[in-house]
Amino acid sequence: MTIFSLRRAQRTDEQLMTAAARGSDDAFTELYNRYARRLQGFFMRQLRGDREAAADCTHDVFLRAYAARTSWREGRKVDVWLFTIAYNICRNIWRHGIHEAAYMETQSDPPVTDSEAEAELDAELFRQALRTTLTTLRPDDRMMFSLRYEEELTVPEIAQIYAMPEGTVKSRLHRIMTTIKQKMKQYENK
Predict the structure, then answer these.
(1) Of 37, 38, 30, nearest in space to 13 by CA
(2) In angstroms, how far is CA 135 from the centroid of its own chain?
(3) Within a 10 A sphere around the Cβ of 71, how many other Cβ atoms?
(4) What is the pLDDT of residues 24-72, one digit of tens each?
(5) What is the rounded distance in angstroms from the CA atom of residue 31 to the CA atom of residue 151?
(6) Does the model's pTM come out above 0.90?
(7) How far apart are CA 27 and CA 35, in angstroms?
(8) In 10 A of CB 66, how many CB atoms?
(9) For residues 186 and 190, what is the distance between their CA atoms, to the nearest angstrom?
(10) Is-contact 45 31, C-beta < 8 A?
(11) How far apart are CA 107 and CA 110, in angstroms?
(12) Would you put residue 104 in left (φ > 0), alpha (ψ -120 to 50) or beta?
């Protein structure tokens, strides 16, 4: 490995985006390679497992990011910027009611179980109940839950994505978690 390739491999997301903003398609491709899978997983959760729609939305994020690359502001976190784009794409989809009706039809499917071990069964039943509980949340609340607890973004990062004060994000997350706990009460202390 040469010093040049080692130095290139160690570039931060922000350095890559700055290079992409200056015209480096290689830097943008590296960002794509770092984030495409994570964003596609995010869209899979938000769009109820629709792989084709998730792939399309992931592609759309990077098309929008590429188009806006020259307006990139140094100092901004790349993951927050990309998830802001993803958030806006999801909001547009939900406004048009796409995926909600199709997803509700799949809710009659029986939970997947593994009878070999009681612990595995309990864990799978819990995951299934959590997924079902999450479907009862408003789409915007599901997304906020996903950004915080699945994508592990911080409260300040989520506040930036939603363009709202951190205190509002904290209170909404608290309300979301209270709702989930109430609906999942049967799994308390298990």
Answers:
(1) 30
(2) 15
(3) 7
(4) 999 999 999 999 999 999 998 888 788 899 999 999 999 999 999 988 8
(5) 17
(6) no
(7) 13
(8) 14
(9) 9
(10) no
(11) 8
(12) alpha
